[in-house]
Amino acid sequence: MKAVVQRRYGSAVFGELAVPVPGKGEVLLEVRAAGVDMGVWHLLEGKPYLVRFLGFGFRGPKSPVPGRDVSGVVKEIGPDVTGFEVGDEVFGTCEGSFAEYAVAPVSRLARKPAGISFTEAAAVPISGGTALQGLRGVQAGQRVLVLGAGGGVGSYGVQIAKALGAHVTGVCSTSKVGLVRSLGADEVFDHTVADFTGTYDLILDCGGGRTLSRLRKATVEGGRVVLVGAETGGAVTGGFEKSLFSLVLNLFVKQKFVPLMSQERGEIFDELRVLIEAGDVKPAVGEVFPLSEALDAVDHVYSRRSIGKTVVAI
Ligand SMILES: NC(=O)c1ccc[n+]([C@@H]2O[C@H](COP(=O)([O-])OP(=O)(O)OC[C@H]3O[C@@H](n4cnc5c(N)ncnc54)[C@H](OP(=O)(O)O)[C@@H]3O)[C@@H](O)[C@H]2O)c1
Fold first, then answer.
1. What Pfam families does the entry give (predicted)?
2. Measured distance CA(118)–CA(224) in Å, rounded
3. Does residue 175 have its Cβ closer than 6 Å to ligand 1?
4. CATH 3.90.180.10 placement within the chain
5. Over the stretch 146-191, which tens digit does the pLDDT of each residue have?
6. Taking a C-beta distance cutoff of 8 angstroms, is the pair 9, 44 a contact?
7. What is the H or E stretch that residue 170 is in?
8. Where in the chain is the domain with CATH 3.40.50.720?
9. Omega of the bond prior to 48 within 30 degrees of 0, cis?
10. CATH number belonging to domain 2-124+283-313
11. Considering only CA atoms, which of 161, 170, 114 is closest in space to residue 141?
């Protein structure tokens, strides 16, 4: 099969590999599309170095193919699989979606939402799942601020917070203002012109770049700041210490910092399927690249030019 092949960190090529064989609890997918996010860049580069201690491979990547978000069609069923059949259209996550075929654990798959394309479905799992988990507990009428609202996670954050009945403010740079408005944000701040003002019940921080003090002051007493992630933390820890420090700060302040470690599970993707089929969420697909240019797609996301979610269509 054609695939992006990655034998060591910092180096990958477009080439050929044998089609993988599904093991226990897994299915073989004919991949139709693969979502691209900063996580793919981290695993291609092995940076921040902390990721090498998190089970993805210390000296080199465990998976010979990058890519995690996936949509596709079940081609073969491994041992002990129930609930899925050959021919099912699915979406979710796996190791190695930048390929014509990939093996996926069924625990990380759900049925593809009706009424959207495979390209749109592949834009959902990691970013949509992260936003959904970060916004748990939001009540109708609450004020939610989404930092990085025009990016992968933020674009779902705006829509899911609106679906929960919140008043939503998005913060992004100029080229993403139109998208964030179209996603339903009640207010949009272009941070290149003026930074956001006001106080919020929940801040979903997908952009980084603000101090904990700035975030705390913009949150009401009893409110939460969900730290999703940022690319501002350096090559060693990626800013993990900011999350640790926020937990210490929780002992002294009336707001709560919540460093998010999102989970990838079929049940979560199924919740997203329901929101999409109800019309509450629409994947904001930005640029679409062919498989042979998957590494350019990752560069595109890394360069911050990406608006919404970038996808590789196979
Ligand atoms: N905790 C978790 O489980 C989890 C899960 C998924 C992703 N993440 C992390 O969360 C972050 C957001 O993910 P994403 O997929 O939404 O990324 P994304 O698509 O790149 O969007 C992030 C947005 O943040 C802003 N941004 C990017 N770099 C910035 C910088 N250096 N300073 C200030 N703002 C910056 C950009 O918006 P503007 O250009 O409009 O400013 C961009 O649209 C990433 O760091 C990712 O690795 C964490």
1. ADH_N, ADH_zinc_N_2
2. 35
3. no
4. 2-124+283-313
5. 999 999 999 999 999 999 999 999 999 999 999 999 999 999 999 9
6. yes
7. strand 167-172
8. 128-259
9. yes
10. 3.90.180.10
11. 161
